[in-house]
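[step 3/7] fold_predict: job queued, chain A
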Amino acid sequence: MTEPVYVTETRTAYDTVAENYAELLKDALKASTWDRAVLGAFAERTGEGPVGDLGCGPGRLTGYVASLGLDVFGVDLSPAMVEIARRTHPHLRFEVGTLAALDLADASLAGALAWYSLIHTPPEQLPVLAKELARVVRPDGWLLTAFQVGENQRKRIENAYGHDIGADAYRLDPDFVAQLLTDAGFVVEARLVRAPEPPFDSTDQAYLMARKEG
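[step 4/7] structure written:
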């Protein structure tokens, strides 16, 4: 099967910016009370069992939630990002993979993070990702997703982290994402929309925490 162009573009973009991305964002969690708060709530609700950081990038959240006591591993589309994650967090497991077809058994995860990993998929294709997340999360397991807020509009990115690239990103409607998760079999139990926190973001940001129906 031919890979969609947006997937190829996304992988190439993140491979290109990986080192600069990791360096710029390595301390971003320290600057965001809200990020740490929702990750802490996710850790408390998830409890025991394997957790997938799906779209983990250089592993900055993977390492953080591991420090909160979760049994976490990372998956990312970008081999360059996975290489950095393995180097930075040698005690954790990281694999190359795609959110559309995870190499994970059904109901194998106590929790899943999809932290800004839905934003490069066209909105009309997001039901595929929501169903795949529902497939791998066990009944009464938890999902936490974060994304930039908008009206599902496309933004073409041609320069990022000091590099010329070509990739699309979508600013998503929280109601739209909540409905996707509901349709896939989750119950959205919390949502938060916060103001931007420069210099790391310039638009409102959303978090949704959902429980897989038992």
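[step 5/7] annotate
Residues 5-212 form a domain with the Rossmann fold fold (CATH 3.40.50.150).
The chain has one domain: 5-212.
exit 0
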